[in-house]
Amino acid sequence: MLHKIKANFHTDFQTVPPSYKMKHFHYHDRWELFYLVSGTCSLYIENDMYLIEAGCIVLIPEGIKHMTIYHPGSDHDRRLIYFDTPELDWLNAQTGKNIAEVLSSRFIVKIPSRRNAYVTDLISKIAYEHGGIDEFSIIFDRTYFHELILFLLRCRLYNENVVQKMDIANETIQKVTEYIIANYNEDITLSNTAKIFNMSESSLSKKFKTFTGYRFKEYVIDVRTHAAADMLLNTSLSMTEIADKCGFSDSNTFGDTFKRIFGCCPSAYRKNV
Predict the structure, then answer these.
(1) Element (H, E) at 249
(2) Which domains does the chain have, with CATH numbers?
(3) pTM higher than 0.70, yes or no?
(4) Is the model's pLDDT at 124 over the cut of 60?
């Protein structure tokens, strides 16, 4: 699914609640710089899976499919910068390197804790100048952006800052989450899923919680509820029809679960959101 970005250089600051979950892989028509200020999430980039913690920055090239699953707990504070490849031309000229090529190779770094404030402030300056304060704003904007990219390139020189993809066991859990997202309307149980992926129930349960932050049943319910929320906003289906299509046993169970996760009943959500 393509998510188009309106401008060739764009900032987006959001606080994402623990209940937020992407249901599909997507890609952009521009580069994405993703900085997680607080919280934890699992990031899927094509066939690879990464555990992203507070202080991590990810560079995702245009056209690369990815999906983020935020772990339960507190809200997640994220900062996004979208940009076109020509924004890197000055850095190419100064370094004699193809910076886009360097950034394309699964560029994920964990900022040293003592430098988090510096990076957060730098990104805030980029967003501030992006608002167009005066005739010098665009120069400040790009100068701060180039400083940020240079700092990230320096960080990546040190192996302890480089975030590695998860191992094969974690890739299996990735496939389990994809299976749940694709089949949430079916009767998904821990027992049947363990058999499908040739795992014991205890092993699947433990690994699933470790690498997604959710208990297995909790995750299935969460995916179903968010799919239902999407249907509430984008279809005219009745509550009973939505409950059935999303795998809930009945409309009462659907209503109770929805209210627990979203804080309001389905009908109120459809009316007010």
Answers:
(1) none
(2) 2-161 (2.60.120.280), 168-272 (1.10.10.60)
(3) no
(4) yes
